[in-house]
Amino acid sequence: MEAFQKATFPIFSANPNLLSTKPIKPSKVSIKPPPQDFDFRTEILSDSKATIAKTCPELLNLADDGTLVLIQKRQFGPVPAWRSEFVEPENIWLIGTTHLSQDSAADVERVVRAIKPDNVVVELCRSRAGIMYTSNVGEDDQQLRSNMFSLSGTGFFGAVGRSIDLGGQTALALRLLLALFSSKISSDVNRPFGDEFRAARKVAEEVGAQIVLGDRPIEITLERAWNSLKWNEKLNLLINVIRGITSPSDMSLDNLKEPSPDDSTFQLYKKLSFSCPSLLLPLIHERDMYLAWSLKRSKAVNNSKKVVGVIGKGHMNGVIYALVSDQGNLRFRDLAGKRSSGDGSNGWIASLLKSLVRDTVIGILLWALYEQVKGTLS
Predict the structure, then answer these.
(1) DSSP secondary structure code for residue 284 in this structure
(2) Would you say the C-alpha torsion 187, 188, 192, 197 has a positive or negative sign?
(3) C-alpha distances in angstroms, 293 versus 285, 300, 310?
(4) Of 8, 33, 257, 323, which has the most beta carbons under 10 Å away?
(5) Closest Cα to residue 27, out of 347, 288, 341?
(6) pLDDT above 60 for 373
(7) Dihedral pair phi/psi, residue 120, rounded to 5°
(8) CA dist 159 to 4, 130, 131, 155, Å?
(9) Cβ(127)–Cβ(149) under 8 Å?
(10) Residue 227: enclosing H or E segment and its boundaries?
């Protein structure tokens, strides 16, 4: 991505330590998802609309339906003692988007131009940042490269190497299959993924805002998701993904224009999690918490006055809950470390060799399947 390398405005990872591929200590903490009865539309939205009506009345129509939500500093959870020197943002403006909707891109432009924030936090990681620079039309392979799982960045082989370092061969192969799945959805509705992220990058440059990559690396997410499954669940997951790639889609542009609480990628995660409930934590709840921390506790937003977050509509409830309920007892590394395998210290070599052989075999098989299915669709 040449344009990515020649960006003229600052782009920061919410957690620079994740740019390193050094092993991270396994996490043993518990991530609590929002209670079933929590709904930001009843808990937060009325106060948010009242404040927006006073400060930015031109955006009130977005606030009315919950697309735009303002979270003020007084509503945040407590700042942890170990981060006492950190100054959280005064205001966080969250805009919920649909990744296949052009209307969402227009909404993002409106909000960023009106707010003129210090930072714009996007639901992307370093490996997916190239989505902000892909063109909407023109190249035949744009839809494959412009989706939430595509391999983008400074180069394809660099992206592959980073994926293997962070998530292993299995996570890389699973990512390739999901990239093909996402490209099929995009092709079915004749829309590329991520118009709102391209709009965010463009308008952030215009107003002088800093772009912050706020999502957890996709490699870590997929690695944790895969390791959370039992072997029968892993087989069921692969069957569901392959079925989704090869079966007809009922998505249409008309469906995308209808009000929906979830975005298409979030719906994909929910469907996978329905068949494999263990996926809910790594695919959705952990990422909600990670996005919330990027918005209010990352180094990039320290002492900021106004921060705009561009996230999928399906994440709105979880991210808002994390913003207002976080007690400061967790850190970024708790969400980015590898899960403990449960093996004793005496068996770590055997476990390592077993994992290496397993991941290599599965990775080769999934890569071969990816190439075969891609050929049948082209």
Answers:
(1) I
(2) negative
(3) 13, 11, 14
(4) 323
(5) 341
(6) no
(7) -120, 110
(8) 13, 11, 13, 6
(9) no
(10) helix 218-227
Q: In degrees to the nearest 10, what's the CA dihedral of 249, 254, 256, 262?
A: -80
Q: What is the pLDDT of residues 44-75, one digit of tens each?
A: 999 999 999 999 999 999 999 999 999 999 99
CA 170 – CA 225 distance, rounded (Å): 11
Which candidate, 214, 202, 11, 213, places its Cα nearest to that of 112? 202
Report which of 196, 217, 227, 225 is spatially closest to residue 285, judged by C-alpha positions: 225
The answer on pLDDT for 7 being more than 50 is no
Mean pLDDT value across residues 317-328:
88
3-state secondary structure of 95: strand
pLDDT of residue 273: 63
Secondary structure of residue 213 in the 3-state scheme: strand
What pLDDT sits at residue 304? 96
Q: Lowest mean pLDDT of 102-116, 235-249, 338-352, name the range.
A: 338-352
**Full-prediction pTM beyond 0.90?**
no
Give, to the nearest 10 degrees, the angle between helix 195-207 and helix 102-115.
Answer: 20
Look-up of token digits 């052989």 = 357
Residue type, 160: V
Nearest partner of 19 among 165, 119, 176, 152, judged by Cα = 165
Kindly give the interhelix angle for 231-246 and 264-275, rounded to the nearest 10 degrees: 140
Question: What does DSSP say about strands 11-13 and 210-213: parallel, antiparallel, or unpaired?
Answer: parallel
How do residues 124-144 score in pLDDT, each as one tens digit? 988 888 889 876 544 444 443
Q: Distance (Å, rounded) from C-alpha 172 to C-alpha 359?
A: 10
